[in-house]
Specification:
about 240 residues, globular
Length: about 240
């Protein structure tokens, strides 16, 4: 079910990973064990990144120097609820596919600590944060779409539904970020080529690694340089700016 929340028309979808995957069991999985084993690192990475939305939200809320609008606060609250729903789904999936207890997954994931220093230059103000989130969410949308076939081949229909629901959420986050950029920050659109170029340069630099910050988590080979540049160019085209 799709619906709009708040007076600024933020899009969201009403669904629960826990309800959707409640009947998922190891016995219901019929996919190739070799393929499942080869994807373990990726499933864990995605799960951790979704959980790390909590780290990112806390980081933003603790930044006393930021002047964040009510529109932005509504946006990140909706976004955070979705990302934690995705975490609960991937926690269940990792448990079923790889034999982990969900309580043990929680302990491991929660023991990690974020390091925001490397990304702080992108988190200057609401405009640069929204641009960074828009880039991050459209990239996640496209990466999840790449996983449709994998999830479809695992067996249970609920997994095919889950990956498509999560993808729709990521696309909605991108759309919502773009809506706020257009509504509240149109005077700064000329800055976007430099900002997005800097993000791509950061994520493709030697030694780049993800530090549990949620934002800029594209350090596996699911995220090609072509994919990152496509995300940048899509945003610039939406605002009619030079690539």
């Amino acid at each position: 079910m799709s619906y709009l929340k708040s007076s600024i028309g933020l899009k969201s979808y009403d669904w629960s990973s826990v309800d959707l995957l409640k009947s998922l069991t190891p016995e219901s999985i019929s996919g190739s064990r070799d393929i499942i084993k080869s994807r373990q690192e990726y499933f864990w990475h995605d799960m951790g990144s979704e959980f790390d939305s909590k780290h990112f939200l806390i980081y933003l809320m603790n930044r006393s120097d930021l002047q964040l609008s009510d529109d932005f606060l509504e946006f990140v609250c909706l976004w955070h609820l979705d990302e934690q729903n995705h975490y609960r789904g991937l926690r269940k999936i990792n448990s079923v596919l790889y034999g982990f207890r969900e309580d043990d997954i929680d302990k491991e994931i929660k023991s990690r600590r974020p390091e925001f220093e490397a990304v702080s230059s992108f988190m200057v103000d609401e405009f640069t944060i929204l641009a960074s989130i828009a880039f991050d969410e459209i990239t996640s949308t496209r990466a999840y779409k790449q996983d449709f076939k994998l999830f479809d081949n695992l067996g249970p229909d609920c997994l095919s539904v889950w990956i498509r629901n999560a993808t729709k959420d990521e696309a909605a986050h991108y759309d919502n970020a773009m809506k706020l950029l257009k509504k509240n920050h149109s005077s700064r659109f000329d800055e976007l080529p430099a900002i997005l170029g800097k993000i791509v340069g950061f994520e493709t630099s030697d030694g780049f690694r993800y530090n549990n910050t949620f934002i800029f988590d594209h350090d596996t080979d699911d995220f090609s340089n072509e994919l990152l540049n496509d995300s940048k160019n899509t945003i610039l085209e939406a605002f009619g700016r030079e690539k």
